[in-house]
Amino acid sequence: MTGTTIGFVGLGGMGRGMAGSLLRAGHAVRVWNRSPEPVAALVAEGAEPAESLAEVFAADTVVSMLADDTAVERLLLDPALLAGARASLHVNMATVSLALAERAEELHAEHGIGYVAAPVLGRPPVAAAGQLNILAAGDGALLARAEPLFAAMGQRTWHFGDRPSQANTTKISVNFLLACAIESMAEACALAEANGVRPTDLIDLLTGTLFPGPVYSGYGAMVAERRYEPAGFRLPLGLKDVGLALDAGAVATVPLPFGSVLRDAFLDALAHGDGEKDWAAVASVARRRAGLPE
Amino acid sequence: MTGTTIGFVGLGGMGRGMAGSLLRAGHAVRVWNRSPEPVAALVAEGAEPAESLAEVFAADTVVSMLADDTAVERLLLDPALLAGARASLHVNMATVSLALAERAEELHAEHGIGYVAAPVLGRPPVAAAGQLNILAAGDGALLARAEPLFAAMGQRTWHFGDRPSQANTTKISVNFLLACAIESMAEACALAEANGVRPTDLIDLLTGTLFPGPVYSGYGAMVAERRYEPAGFRLPLGLKDVGLALDAGAVATVPLPFGSVLRDAFLDALAHGDGEKDWAAVASVARRRAGLPE
Amino acid sequence: MTGTTIGFVGLGGMGRGMAGSLLRAGHAVRVWNRSPEPVAALVAEGAEPAESLAEVFAADTVVSMLADDTAVERLLLDPALLAGARASLHVNMATVSLALAERAEELHAEHGIGYVAAPVLGRPPVAAAGQLNILAAGDGALLARAEPLFAAMGQRTWHFGDRPSQANTTKISVNFLLACAIESMAEACALAEANGVRPTDLIDLLTGTLFPGPVYSGYGAMVAERRYEPAGFRLPLGLKDVGLALDAGAVATVPLPFGSVLRDAFLDALAHGDGEKDWAAVASVARRRAGLPE
Amino acid sequence: MTGTTIGFVGLGGMGRGMAGSLLRAGHAVRVWNRSPEPVAALVAEGAEPAESLAEVFAADTVVSMLADDTAVERLLLDPALLAGARASLHVNMATVSLALAERAEELHAEHGIGYVAAPVLGRPPVAAAGQLNILAAGDGALLARAEPLFAAMGQRTWHFGDRPSQANTTKISVNFLLACAIESMAEACALAEANGVRPTDLIDLLTGTLFPGPVYSGYGAMVAERRYEPAGFRLPLGLKDVGLALDAGAVATVPLPFGSVLRDAFLDALAHGDGEKDWAAVASVARRRAGLPE
């Protein structure tokens, strides 16, 4: 194993594509995943399978893309694992809380391992194409080391400061804005429809004039057509991300009234059985409130 | 005066440019305004001054662009004026309530005058350039008659149905979405700043990735840089438009929780002296709630 | 007709009992109502029927108890009526907006008629028993003149200042607090039930300890038992009163976030067909949001 | 030491009075507290000091009154402590989350120890007087064993079911209602004041008519007079309790829009330096929103 081996943890929809991008860029990648299938798929693309997390952390650099705080905490914030690691850099690309980012940074420092945060914008197909937008924060020298990896996985790296949690703050803020855009369109479409305007006509106008771009056109179509399956991003994950924003606000005493409305709307959607749908299904709540037909 | 004369009422920032566009397209335009200065300016461009609203309504077609319900009600929904009118079509391009649209349509019908609604998207420079987006609704034959005027004033006409109030619903919905976008960015920027991320960095990321377009870049810059003067659209007008959305929701029993948050935030901004600033100054409320420095 | 005749306008559920209380206290009362039945009933108790509002305003003092701003505006704020009046005092006991109170005071002053506001607390049976709480505001000498009438109709008169609108502000604030208490219990009962606690047990605890009194026990029982019919106070009237609070807040730039939540909840209830139920039926919204069975 | 010894953990403002009540009722009480002063005070009243938590859990019955989930978790949910315990009953009287209640019940069961929840209503002087209201839930036989202790500490025991978390749900719901009442009065007082009505006049009316009882009179006076020090219950504890309600709602998918408003208001108050004041100081937020002088 050469010094350029990358350990990669977490081969879900996103991680699979990201690890694949690293492979295609010529990096040696040693992969680990809780379930074996994605490992096999990546081994077929040239990756080396790791038998354990310890083997992953024997690489120079570890990249991780796990689901949430709980997974990161349980799998990676393990003092024994970090104490035995040969890795000198861990790039955590998951969307995690600020509290976790700070704890992780501290714990890695205790074991002499650099820690940077690099959450991403983009869905699985974008990850597979190596076209993510990467939101990076942490020590400048460490980020410079990580940049070739970012270049393989993303179309652009955006920098937000030298504390890893700054990138997590940014990612949480972006997801908050996505949720706000969905709820805004949900309320506007309910208002339009109840007053005799076709939601699709409203969305066409919006995206053709003031609100171009993927959020208003993509989610707008879903909201206007009430098409929430299959889920691109499941509703409970949306609630989780709204919760990350509210928690980040609580720590810094930032009231987020839109965030509060969002939280209530997501709970309402879950209470009505939308847990397996795309998070845009939160728009069904605005319709139900107004007594519009399901 | 030929049959093609257009009467034009309301030469504010928007109306002035719209009447100018009609002139430049070769229409004969007879103009009226409460204060005389804009009349003189347009006469210099070739318009004919009207001494009274009756003279305006002696034209075939009347186009009006007044400030709000109150102005429309007082100046134009005057049974004596309408009874004496020779005009057979009134194109109301103002942002008014659904209730007013319906009353206006009815009253015009009683006097045998066609009434269509055609509120617009675009600020004064866009109006001056004849590049507005025009949201039209009303009887199809009447809209066909108005289309040459729309072509002179706008880059595109969007249709929303055969009841005039449908265009007003749409316009109110769009302004509601603008206000939602501002408040969303205000909360996100407060969250970012309180957690150590520069708001301008967040806005750059947004507009460079998921949220392109004039709303997020234009208002985003204002919010991130806290630059609310000079006002492009004054804050009390923003409150008025949020109120139009809430009223439209009340009539159709559509709860708008984001709208309710917006209303409270606009009142808060007014209570703190932001009445002369751009409506993006509502973002100062999110900062104040969080105890961030003014 | 002696100088002590009282003209009374508005014999709804409340006004009927109030006029009856005046009669029982020995006052001469001349009554008017839009529909004739309540007039006949009061004539049987000794009242004199008025053929017109002009006859009512020929009495020294007029007491009115109409449904809302619209009724007051249409029936009583009539310059011709006031110009011809012999009355020198009008006691308006209805729940009206601050704007109407101010306009009424001004218009009466123009015609040399004193105007005081005296909205009440209490439901029809309390009015019938002459046990209302009377919230009075206006010129001190006028209130002194009205006090014998208040003594006949109420158990106590509370004073709030020398501008009539101060009493209306107070009444609006009290109704706002009633609505807040209902929504609070609605949310708490939904929370309790969803976590396995019987709402009636919660309400028993509340009223037996920290929250004694008619509001928590009366509305608490309705909410816990989901018993909203027959309506003591219809839901659309509740929405109207919440609207009065929001309007009063808008004029004085007072954001009322609880008021905003209430408005949305009342609209939601109306959208789901609860318009004929007691306003406590707004509690059904909290249950629906949570997916609890109807 | 006989079989009737009670181990008591947590001698804060509440616990001190409760342990004193047990002593006065003739119970043998062995006390433990993190800081030594309250221990000394109770020893002077006849208590036996415990050197360790193990000594407390060597009693037959343990009563605990700790500050929050964190304290309970760290001090009492210790498998080693529970494994070595002789106690067969733990009565947890603190206000804790439903999640903690469930975890605690399970963990105690694993070690053969009965666990019941019995949070209380009442402030320190009420605790000292043995006049608390006790909200009890858990196994019936265990509650029967605890009843003599409840009788010593409280004026009445209220039962909410056989799962301990039901008592915690109830306590959380009551505190939620207290916070709602405070915010309601805060908004109403801001509305009244901004429209020229003295808040004290409004509160006098409320407590003299529809809203008798300690909550509206006690907190009403604090809100109307803006008197938030010394703190009876500190504002961050209020935020914590609102958070418990929101968390309980999240688990059971119960949206709590009033709770969301409360959370934002408490954060706003904290952001403005009110962390050492009574939680009624959240009312200062309603004034600030309205631009009323501090």
TrEMBL record, chains A, B, C, D:
InterPro entries: 3-OH-isobutyrate_DH-rel_CS, 6-PGluconate_DH-like_C_sf, 6PGD_dom2, 6PGDH_NADP-bd, HIBADH-like_NADP-bd, HIBADH-related, HIBADH-related_NP60_sf, NAD(P)-bd_dom_sf. Residues 166-284 form the 3-hydroxyisobutyrate dehydrogenase-like NAD-binding domain. Keywords: NAD, Oxidoreductase. The active site is at K171. One of its GO terms (biological process) is organic acid catabolic process. GO terms for molecular function: NAD binding; NADP binding; oxidoreductase activity. Transmembrane segments: none annotated. It holds the Pfam family NAD_binding_11. Residues 5-159 form the 6-phosphogluconate dehydrogenase NADP-binding domain. Belongs to the HIBADH-related family. This is Oxidoreductase.
